[in-house]
Amino acid sequence: AVGLDVARVRADFPVLHQRVHGKPLAYLDNAASSQKPKPVVDAMTAVYEQYYSNVHRGVHQLSQRSTDAFEAARNKVAGFINAARSEEIVFTRGATEALNLVASSYGRRFCQEGDEVVLTHLEHHSNIVPWQLLRDEKGVQLKVAPIGDDGSVTAQDVIDLIGPRTKIVAISQVSNALGTVVPVQEIAAAAHAQGAVVVVDGCQAVPHQPVDVQALGADFYAFSGHKMYGPTGIGALYGRYDLLTEMPPYQGGGEMIASVTFEQSTWKKPPHKFEAGTPAIVEVIGLGAAVDYLAELGMANVAAHEAELLAYATQRLDAIEGLRIHGRAPEKAGILSFTMDQAHAHDVGTIVDRAGVAIRAGHHCAQPAMERFGISSTVRASLGIYNTHEEIDQLADALGVVKEIFG
Ligand code: PMP
């Protein structure tokens, strides 16, 4: 398809068609979590109503159907981010678990005291804290690349920190707090030249632009289903197959073993080695449906739609006196993080909610990025496939009310 038919997209999302405080809902909190289209909800209902069963171990018909659908979803996810093979997709609870898996399994096995992990200042807490846990256990050093005044992170600023002791470079592709797009490809090439592996937090990229993990040079790539119009409780870790093969299990239990005796157990091959216990069967199948949905829209169309909306929203918000947008990197995704002279972020959030507008106020799990700009919180409007100019206008008008009340 050429271009996004937003009216058609909106028709797929029942939840959008409601009033909040008597006003039409304008859902602009997509970076926190997105809404779910009918095909995702229907796919999940179909599992429960027609063929629900545990996977991978049943000889009976329902189990085979569930297993087929489950593994088909893995194929879809692999294709969506251009993994070389579906065995490179490990299902996790979300990006947080995916990043913890890499830090625990790869980090503990391959990092020694004095080795270095390179991060950026704009990381989400879930791409900071797992590395701090590794630091405290193994004595690795964390090096943090700075954020420029416009919210950008340049490749050079990260590359300057990469040296012979660098084992891991862990960076977001897109900042959830500022919208900044980080030049992952260039950084990855430099990291590989020093023998480091590259871990990418792709939470805010996968739902909004085409992603090709091989072209990016990502060795690991983490993302969450619930931000890409899929269910909660499911996400994925892409890992290069040779690396997954070398890594120890993350958790032990059923599903991940080849054999168990009290003396010794052996593991299945990746990805099953990293999927201990009964997985989130229905959520995995729902994630597969979300991938189908996005693939059908076309990620280039999605990106173009959101870029156009971002430009419009930036212009509308810039016209509001006393409002400051934080994060104006030249390469930016559909996230508008701002403060207002007149009012605290939480007050802004409460007032625009009265106008039917759902946005987020807070530190967005990126306290260091907030601190970089001398603030503790921002108001954040984050865009998705179903958002419209009218909703941006609704937000801007509501911010006008904030000014009246506090101004
Ligand atoms: N990284 C980024 C950039 C995010 O935006 C988020 C979610 N806000 C996460 C990681 C964590 O994702 P989850 O809570 O779904 O595990």
TrEMBL record:
This is Cysteine desulfurase. Keywords: Lyase, Pyridoxal phosphate, Transferase. Belongs to the class-V pyridoxal-phosphate-dependent aminotransferase family. Csd subfamily. Its EC number is 2.8.1.7. Gene3D superfamilies: Aspartate Aminotransferase, domain 1, Type I PLP-dependent aspartate aminotransferase-like (Major domain). Residues 27-395 form the Aminotransferase class V domain. The keyword Oxidoreductase does not apply. One of its GO terms (molecular function) is cysteine desulfurase activity. InterPro entries: Aminotrans_V_dom (IPR000192), Cys_dSase_SufS (IPR010970), Cysteine_dSase (IPR016454), PyrdxlP-dep_Trfase (IPR015424), PyrdxlP-dep_Trfase_major (IPR015421), PyrdxlP-dep_Trfase_small (IPR015422). Catalyzes the removal of elemental sulfur and selenium atoms from L-cysteine, L-cystine, L-selenocysteine, and L-selenocystine to produce L-alanine. Coiled coil: none annotated. It holds the Pfam family Aminotran_5. Its cofactor is pyridoxal 5'-phosphate. It catalyses: (sulfur carrier)-H + L-cysteine = (sulfur carrier)-SH + L-alanine. One of its GO terms (biological process) is cysteine metabolic process. The keyword Signal does not apply. It comes from the Bacteria.
